[in-house]
Fold:
Amino acid sequence: MRLVDLPSPNFGPRRGGIRPDMLVLHYTGMRSAEDALDRLCDEEAQVSAHYVIDEEGTVYRLVREDKRAWHAGRGCWRGETDINSRSIGIELVNPGHEFGYRPFPIAQMASLILLAGELVREYAIPPLHVLAHSDVAPDRKEDPGELFDWPSLAAAGIGAWPQPNGQDMASWSNAEIRELLGRVGYGTAWEKPDGTAWDGTAWDGAAAKTLLAFQRHWRPARLTGQPDTETVARLRALVREYCPANGTTVSA
Ligand SMILES: [Zn+2]
Structure:
């Protein structure tokens, strides 16, 4: 793994100096690696990440891990809204949905697995704290997107990948799905498109965007924002395997 120091001026202190226990993955969503690195090091842009990995697998270190990089913006996970203070951010070079979304190359994934594996061990990052940007901000983000290979990460001990059983395929209610999404970590204070509180009758507005974010991560073959048997089965399995019975997820 080739490591290049490329310090960015865009960082601050972590709130209360806390030690990070989340990992947030992104794609750069720009035409080239050079464009992305320039922007993430541009003081005027006010954005950064701790690491950037290009498509050849070179890792650029922009911000020290004890500092708060500016990658997640407004978001929520398990009630935490200052995601930047709690997390380490890794940007993967990829043009993204706007400029030609494409698979993440093997060399890039190999470097990510090495880097993320070290971070997960050093900071004791629990499986449900290894997240997509779209998980913490489902209303406005879709990165790193449905082509990202989460199962390979999980096979390397990084993050969560559920294994549904037959019982997980049973029928469901919308209220159950909402409760399970909340237990996984998603924000579920949803509003309908007209601004009123979600009433559980239809998967619309923020509820659909949150279920879509779940599908991008754990059910990438079906990006509808609507429940189906396999989406629900994977959600149930995720909760069963990674959230203890007292209703809270594992925390470091
Ligand atoms: Zn992002």
User: Anything to note?
Assistant: Residues 3-155 form a domain with the Lysozyme-like fold (CATH 3.40.80.10). The first strand starts at residue 3 and ends at 5. Residues 26, 133, 141, 143 surround zinc ion (CB under 6 Å). The beta strands are 3-5, 11-13, 22-27, 51-53, 59-61, 67-69, 87-92, 130-132.
